[in-house]
Specification:
single chain; 232 residues; alpha/beta; Rossmann fold; 2 domains; 5-stranded parallel β-sheet; 4-stranded mixed β-sheet; 31% helix; globular; hydrolase activity; AIR carboxylase; P2CMN_synthase_LarB; PurE_dom
Length: 232
């Protein structure tokens, strides 16, 4: 292994790990598990665990859990269980500090795994979150209850598939920053999240920010930039 002592880069057989990223931008590099072979996955996780800060592993197939289970004291979002498409892992989360809070609203329970990906990233950086599932606009009363429950949030992350309307409704209802995440949930012309993404991008609610399809990780990183991470 070669290491760049000034940039915090760790280089191995299968690639580089940016150990200095949190020092630069306040958010650590995550190990993206999907598409990596077993040896590459283990190598990158070992690099991440060499440091002292929080460790994130995203898009891990639960069937590969045995490869890394004993390498750290992991928190899993959702908990490791049969049938989940993927999980997000956190090791060494920072302690929660201050009143920072991010609301995560998921239009349907089918958006749960993407929502928990966002929650995992926030947990790793010590930022509290309030998750409300199944509060989409098909039953607007649920949306109103969710908005009331999360009125103290500094930022909203809103996940929705189908036509993606929840993000527009939330952005039209609150003054806080709103980050929309279109999800690949829905029938027919929902087209794997493309319709929800187009709807959010075309929203008439001013200032709605939109991530890529199913990108709960990116939404949480955007929220962390808004609430600030360096003090944590």
């Amino acid at each position: 292994m070669n290491e760049n002592p000034t940039g915090g880069l760790r280089r191995g057989e299968f690639g580089w790990f940016d150990a200095g990223r949190r020092a630069r931008i306040g958010i650590p590099e995550a190990v993206f598990a999907a598409g990596k072979g077993d040896a590459a996955l283990v190598e990158m996780i070992e690099f991440a665990l060499e440091g002292e800060g929080p460790v994130l592993v995203t898009r891990l197939d639960p069937e590969r859990w045995g490869l890394i289970a004993d390498r750290a004291d992991w928190l899993a979002f959702p908990p490791i269980a049969e049938g989940e498409p993927y999980v997000t892992l956190v090791a060494r989360p920072l302690p929660r500090t201050g009143p920072k809070r991010v609301a995560i609203l998921a239009a349907g329970s089918s958006d749960r795994v993407m929502a928990l990906e966002a929650r995992a990233v926030l947990t790793a950086l010590g930022v509290d979150s309030h998750l409300v599932l199944d509060c989409g606009v098909s039953a607007l009363k649920r949306t109103l209850v969710a908005l009331d429950e999360t009125s103290d949030a500094e930022v909203y992350i809103v996940l929705a598939g189908f036509e993606g309307a929840l993000a527009t409704v939330v952005a039209a209802s609150v003054a806080q920053p709103v980050i929309g995440v279109p999800t690949s949930v829905g029938y027919g012309v929902a087209r794997g999240g493309e319709t929800a993404m187009a709807s959010m991008l075309a929203s008439c609610s001013q200032g709605l920010m939109v991530m890529g399809i199913d990108n709960g990780f990116g939404a949480a990183c955007a929220a962390l930039r808004i609430v600030g991470t360096r003090s944590t």
